[in-house]
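Please, structure for the following, as tokens.
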Amino acid sequence: MKNMKAFVYKLEKEIEARLQVVEAMEADMLKKSLEASHILGNTFDRPEKFITFYEFKDAIEEIYFFKNIKSRHCAHLIYYRTIYNIEMNRPVKNIEVQRTYLNKELEDILC
């Protein structure tokens, strides 16, 4: 049976490396966020598959997994999908209209 820490470390390093490649791309935020969402979406079920065959040592390890590991992965996916949605709906009009739109989006996020 695999060690949970080793599995999580390997998965996070793989995701981190792939996201760094995306962030370094010479592309706009729409393309970057879409690609990052694909990466995270494609790896989203891997922890679920892992725990299907993994027996947690105790309740603390299980709580840690769901509270920290899984939620961190979800947070990254939500982040990139939010950026994608913001960029997808960004008006193509003049810069002032875009600024107003982005300020409203930022205000919505902060509230």
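The chain has a mean pLDDT of 91. Residues 4-110 form one domain.
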